[in-house]
Amino acid sequence: MHEVITLQFGQQANYLGTHYWNIQESYFTYAGQEESPVDHDISFRPGIGANGEETYSPRTLLYDLKGAFGTLRRENALYQLQEQTNPAQQNGWSGATIPLQLPAIQPSSYQQALDQGLQPPQLRTDTVRFWSDYNHVYYHPRSILQLNEYELNSALMPFERWDTGEELFASLDREHDLLDRDLRPFLEECDQLQGLQIFTGIDDAWGGFAAKYLERIADDMGKGCRWVVGLQDGTSAPRSRQITKIGNAAQSILALNTSASMDLPLSSAPSKLPAYLNLDANSRWHTAALQAASVESLTLPTRLRMTAESGRATFDEMETTLSKEGNRRIGATALSLGQPEVQDGISMTNGHHDSRMSNGVVHEDDDDAGEQQEKLDMDLFPSFDIAGMSAGQSNTRPYVFGKTRLLRGHLPTEEDQEAELRGRIGEGPRVVTYHTNLLFPSLSSFPPIVRSRRAETYTVKVLVATDTTVASRIRSLENHARRIVGVDEREALCDGLASMAEEYEAGWSDDEDYGED
C-alpha cells in the first residue's frame, strides 16, 4: 500500500499541516462520483468510530505546546476516549481533588458553521486565532500530543533555543519512550511503509526536538525515506532574535543531515514575491498556505493510485533523482501559481506581458548564457540572512546536479522531455518531470493570497533541485555561525556545515556544459 506517516512539530508545522490535511480531505469521493486519482489509504488510516461506523483519520502525529491547539480536543464526534483517568489518581494520590478548569476557548464561527453543515463565513487574518480554527478533519485521539512543559508564547519560559528542544525531547523520551508510545502504534498499522514526512520549525526549539526525534528513529528503524520540510520564520525580528534564529537554523541543518533522507528548507516569507501574490508575512495562516501549495504539490506523486497518470512516484524514486548516493540531501524549492485559464500563452493572473509563458512557466532571457533559463516565480529556499551582516552569498548562476518537477494542469514541454533524456544518458543533470491534471484546490480554508478574483483551483509548478545554490546558502549559514555561536560549539558546527557545502560544489567546473539549466 506504500503508506506515509506525517509528523508535525510546532506552530508553523501545524498551520502547514492543517492546510495539507484539508486538501487531502477534499480529494475524497463518494458514491456516484468519479474515483479520485489519490489513494486515500496511503495517508489515512481506517478505524471504527464511537458510533461503530467505519472512519478514516490522518496517519499523523501533531506535537505542539500547551495553549496551541485552540478548540481542538482529543475527543471528537468520531472518537471518544474510552477512559477518562484523573491524573492525580494516576500518580497514586487517593485523597480528595479539586479540579481547576480554565475557561473554554469558544469555537470560531467558521468551525461552528462546519459542525452545523452550513456554508462557513470567509476567514480573515483577525479571525484565525489558532491552526485549529480552519481545520476540516477529525484526528484520532492518539494523533494529538500536547507538551505541557512549555506554554505557547510564554515570556517566562520561551520555547526558542535549539538546546531547549533537545533537552525537552531527552526528558520526555526517558519518561515515556516517545517512539513506543506515539509512533509505533501507527507504524504497526502499515503494511508497507513508504516513508515518513516531517514538518518542523528549524530556527526555534522545535528544530532541536525534531532532530533528536529523527535521531531516535534512525537508531531504531535504520535506513528509510524520511523527508523533512524545515520551516524557517522569514518575518522581521529584533536583531538579538535574528541571531538566535540563525544559530538554531545552523544546528538544525547540520543535525538533520545525518538522519533525514531529504531535507527541504522552506522560508515562510520569500524575499521576492510576484505581483500576483498578496501575502501577509505576519500571518501563519497565509505563509503556511504558500508552503502547503509547494509541499502538497511536490509530494502528490507519492499518493496517486497505481492506475493514475504519469504523476505517480515514490519518495525513494524522487530521492534517486535528487540525491547522489545519499550525499546531497538538501533541496532548493521554487514555486509558481496560476489560474487554469491561460489564453494565447499569456497568463491572465500575473499580468507579466514582458515575459514569455510556456505552460505556466516564466522564461527570461539570460544574455550571459545565450539561452533561456528556467525561473519560477518564488524562491522558497531560506536565505539565512541577518540584517546588517553580510555573509558573502554567490550571485553566479547555479549548476544543477538533480531536479524533480511537478506540473499540475500542464503537460511537460519538449524542453522538459529533452532534459530528462539527456540526464538519463549522462549528458546533463538528472531531471524527472511528473505531471497531473489534478489541480490545486482553493478551499474555503485557503486564504486569498492570489490577487484577482478567487479561483476554485490553481495550476502549480514546483521544483526541487540539488544545485550549487545549496552550497551558497550553507556557506552563508556557516559564516554567520562563526561570528555568533559560542566557542565550545563553533568548531564542530562550522566544520560540519563546511563539509556539507562541499557536497554541492565538487564534481563540476566552470568550463562544463550547464545543460538545460
TrEMBL record:
<comment type="similarity">
    <text>Belongs to the misato family.</text>
</comment>
<feature type="domain" description="Misato Segment II tubulin-like">
    <location>
        <begin position="2"/>
        <end position="116"/>
    </location>
</feature>
<dbReference type="Pfam" id="PF10644">
    <property type="entry name" value="Misat_Tub_SegII"/>
</dbReference>
<dbReference type="Pfam" id="PF14881">
    <property type="entry name" value="Tubulin_3"/>
</dbReference>
<dbReference type="GO" id="GO:0005739">
    <property type="term" value="C:mitochondrion"/>
</dbReference>
<dbReference type="InterPro" id="IPR036525">
    <property type="entry name" value="Tubulin/FtsZ_GTPase_sf"/>
</dbReference>
<feature type="domain" description="DML1/Misato tubulin">
    <location>
        <begin position="120"/>
        <end position="304"/>
    </location>
</feature>
<dbReference type="GO" id="GO:0007005">
    <property type="term" value="P:mitochondrion organization"/>
</dbReference>
<dbReference type="InterPro" id="IPR049942">
    <property type="entry name" value="DML1/Misato"/>
</dbReference>
<protein>
    <submittedName>
        <fullName>MtDNA inheritance, partitioning of the mitochondrial organelle</fullName>
    </submittedName>
</protein>
<dbReference type="InterPro" id="IPR029209">
    <property type="entry name" value="DML1/Misato_tubulin"/>
</dbReference>
<keyword id="KW-0496">Mitochondrion</keyword>
<dbReference type="InterPro" id="IPR019605">
    <property type="entry name" value="Misato_II_tubulin-like"/>
</dbReference>
<comment type="function">
    <text>Involved in the partitioning of the mitochondrial organelle and mitochondrial DNA (mtDNA) inheritance.</text>
</comment>
